[in-house]
Structure formats: structure tokens, C-alpha cells
């Protein structure tokens, strides 16, 4: 998506004050962000005009329905870009959402700046990790960290900083096929230690956990 292209958003949250505040934040964004549907049910994301929105902002706790992991999975399986926006800020919940395919996990305590940036990143299919969550993920280096080669680490970090695998290939002087091979090896190594990372966002989270990258590198 172009850097100046407008972004359409569905906001799913059952607190009217949150809905009003988020819409006001988007209205003040440097890049046009339009809330095309909003409400307390995930149905907003499946009916016009919400069904074609670029990004779905999803609260994990909706009324009495419990944690909306099932809704998140269904949206991701349908190809939607989902920003999870929640009061919860624990590592387990964040990683569960990223492993399910959320584009970004954001605690509501992060505020306007990070919600706007996370939404734009999701629309552009870029990973985004807000500082507070990145700090929580990176508090300790995990003992079950996979053993990555130097080249695998280089390709991984370059990919985090690039818009496409083609750019990674150009910068490192290798083919796109080779880039994919290295990334596949990294995913396999994470899966082999019981920490699967099937999306770019979840790989970012794993790398932060393991001290391979920090927010300033992204």
C-alpha cells in the first residue's frame, strides 16, 4: 500500500468511549484513516462496509463471550489484517494472538501514537511492536532459544527491516529463493523447540524474546 494511501478500519470494542476515542485519534492521523464500521460485535467485520476494510481492530474481551481467540482465528483465516487492542498486556496472551496470525498486539495503555502506527503498519503488512510489549517479551533471553546461524540471523533481521523479500535479496546479494530458504530454516528451528512462528509478527516477537533484535532495530 502506498505511504499516502487512505486506510479503512473496523473497530470492534464494546465500550462506547473507546470507540469514540479511537475514531478521534484516527481522524487526526497524518495519513487518512477512516473508521467504516464500529461496534461491540465482531459481526461488524463481516458485513458491509466492514467486510472490505483494510484493518480490523479487535478487543479480546467482548461482553460475556470470553476471550475472542476464535474470532481472531476466523478473521486471520479469511485473510484479514487484525490489530488486537486489549487491556491485557501479558506475554502469554500476546504470543497466543501473534501465533494465531494477528498483525499486531497492542495494549490499550500504549495510547494514541502506537494505535495509529500499529494500524498503518498492519495496512502495509509490516510488523509493529509497541515498546511496552517489546520490553515484556524481551525481559529475559529464553532458555529454549533455537541455535540460528549468523546468516540466518542476518536474513531474519534484514527481513524485519524491509518491505519485501525482494529488497532483502538485493541488500544481501542473494536470490529471493535463498531468502525464503533461510526464513524456512528459522521457522523450522523455532517449531522444533516448541515455539512455532508462522507469521512475520510472531517471528518478530520470538526474536525480541531471544534478544536477537530490539525495538530500535525495527
Features:
218 residues, alpha/beta, Rossmann fold, five-stranded parallel beta sheet, 9 helices, 12% strand
CATH homologous superfamily classification of the largest domain? Response regulator
Question: N-to-C terminal Cα separation, in Å?
Answer: 19 Å
Number of DSSP strands? 5
pLDDT average, as an integer? 86
CATH topology of the largest domain: Rossmann fold
Shape field: globular
Describe this structure in words.
The chain is α/β, with parallel strands linked by helices and 218 residues long. The protein has two domains: 7-137, Response regulator (Rossmann fold, 3-Layer(aba) Sandwich); 150-217, Arc Repressor Mutant, subunit A (Orthogonal Bundle), CATH 1.10.10. The chain contains nine helices and five strands; from the N terminus they run E-H-E-E-H-E-H-E-H-H-H-H-H-H. It has helices spanning 16-27, 69-77, 91-100, 112-123, 131-137, 150-160, 165-172, 176-192, 200-209; strands at 7-12, 33-39, 55-58, 81-86, 104-107. Strands 2-1-3-4-5 form a five-stranded parallel β-sheet, with helices on both faces. Helix 2 (69-77) links the parallel strand 3 and strand 4. It is globular, with a radius of gyration of 17 Å.
Question: SSE layout and pairings?
Answer:
Blueprint: E1 7-12, H1 16-27, E2 33-39, E3 55-58, H2 69-77, E4 81-86, H3 91-100, E5 104-107, H4 112-123, H5 131-137, H6 150-160, H7 165-172, H8 176-192, H9 200-209
Parallel strand pairs: 1-2, 1-3, 3-4, 4-5
